[in-house]
Specification:
- The chain is of the alpha+beta class and 168 residues long.
- Helices cover 18% and strands 37% of the residues.
- The protein has helices at 54-66, 120-123, 130-143, and strands spanning 9-17, 25-30, 39-40, 42-45, 75-86, 90-99, 113-118, 148-153, 161-167.
- A hairpin with a 3-residue loop joins strand 5 (75-86) and strand 6.
- The chain starts with 8 loop residues before the first strand and ends with a strand.
Length: 168
């Protein structure tokens, strides 16, 4: 970005990785932007006006979107990703959670899209956002049982690059 360009807004959101007893991931085929027409984990933006925490947001979004009731104890925060200039529209600070208990059934279709369960191998063949393909799923594969912080440069017209800032 040049110094004279308009500053981009910063959005804070969560993604929640849920799976069934077979280990298949629950994904949402998005019917809205961002990521319209792509499969992605469920999630949403923090209600910053109420001071909502990332854990509270993950619990709320899982209940709203998948009709699954969780507590913070059901979740493991495994990653924090700072994305610069995603789709050239805004910066994102993402908190990635893994649900520690399997869910039983496919949730019903919602306004944001429809759900499906997929094996990890199937996900690589689905239409998913490029940042999910290059950053999100490799991060899940490698760090889902620990914690990693990374930053990504998503400037349009350039390859997506990322750097790990900390692993614990």
């Amino acid at each position: 970005m040049s110094p004279t360009s308009t500053p981009l807004a910063h959005k804070i959101a969560v993604l929640v990785f849920l799976e069934n007893a077979k280990g298949e991931q629950l994904l949402l085929l998005r019917a809205k932007a961002p990521n319209l027409g792509s499969w992605s984990p469920l999630g949403g933006k923090l209600e910053t006006s109420t001071g909502e925490s990332p854990f509270e947001c993950a619990v709320r979004e899982t209940a709203e979107e998948a009709e699954v009731r969780l507590t913070p104890a059901d979740l493991h925060l495994f990653a924090m990703i700072s994305e610069k200039a995603y789709e050239g529209e805004s910066h994102w600070l993402l908190f990635l959670f893994r649900c520690l208990r399997p869910i039983d059934a496919l949730p019903p279709e919602i306004q944001e899209g429809r759900f499906g369960f997929f094996s990890r191998a199937e996900i690589d063949r689905l239409p998913i956002p490029e940042t999910d393909r290059t950053i999100l799923w490799p991060t899940y594969d490698r760090y889902k049982d620990c914690f990693v912080s990374l930053r990504a440069d998503c400037l349009p017209g350039h390859p997506v690059t990322f750097e790990i800032e900390q692993v614990s």
